[in-house]
Amino acid sequence: MKLIVGLGNPGIEYQFTPHNLGFLTIDRLAERCGVEVRNRQCRALTARAVIGPETVLLAKPETYMNLSGLAVRELLAEYEAKPEADLIVVQDELDFPWGTVRIHRNRSSAGHNGIESIIGALGTQDFLRIRMGVAPDRKIEDGMSYLLAPMRKAQLKVVDEMLDVAAETVQVILKDGPAAAMNRFNRKPDEEGKD
């Protein structure tokens, strides 16, 4: 069982904030698979689905971002899954420009509270992460206020495209493997179209 975890905060007030791109990606995957993420288990909302050759568990922790690791650890234990082989975490990334989607593994949290919680709970940073860029176009004083504020209407079109890319990234990882997905999605914009 592969575990696809989107990070975010529960509650309608957080639904369309930059910090909830992980949750929104899980919703996009569920929509593509024809399932609803509504089963409650291990402090998360979950749904089983089949993506490519894999049976997966889509999960949105209900613990709030700073305690995401509690739900992830319980889900991995429940399904006897290994972080390095079976876990994909989808997160927002304040260090990347809007529209950027990158795949990484075995990296530090880079200050992301949800990732920090997962690394702390699992005792390892060796798991796949899909990082979705949300960097503001101007200097901000308070990153957390920015991440928890509703997205502007102009950003929603970019978000829609990013969700499609992130969902496709998960599909490629499961079908062709992480290396093939990194090769395809981690290109810089000026490398696009060069083959």
Report on this structure.
This protein has 195 residues and is α/β, with parallel strands linked by helices. 38% of the residues lie in helices and 25% in strands. It has 7 helices and 7 strands. The protein has helices at 21-33, 68-78, 83-86, 113-122, 143-147, 153-176, 178-185, and strands at residues 2-6, 39-41, 44-51, 54-61, 87-97, 101-105, 128-135. Strands 2-3-4-1-5-7-6 form a 7-stranded mixed β-sheet, sandwiched between helices. A hairpin with a 2-residue loop joins strand 2 (39-41) and strand 3 (44-51). Helix 2 packs across helix 4. The longest helix is centred in the last third of the chain and has 24 residues, at 153-176. The chain is globular, with a radius of gyration of 15 Å. Mean pLDDT is 93; it is low at 190-195.
Which H/E pattern describes the elements? EHEEEHHEEHEHHH
Strand content: 15-25%
Which structural class should the secondary elements be placed in?
alpha/beta
The tally of beta strands, per DSSP, is 7
**Fraction of residues in H or I helices:** 25-40%
Main β-sheet description: 7 strands, mixed
Cα distance, first to last residue? Answer: 34 Å
Number of helical stretches of at least 4 residues: 7
Mean pLDDT: 93
Low-confidence stretches: 190-195
Strand order of the largest sheet: 2-3-4-1-5-7-6
What is the CA-atom radius of gyration, in angstroms? 15 Å
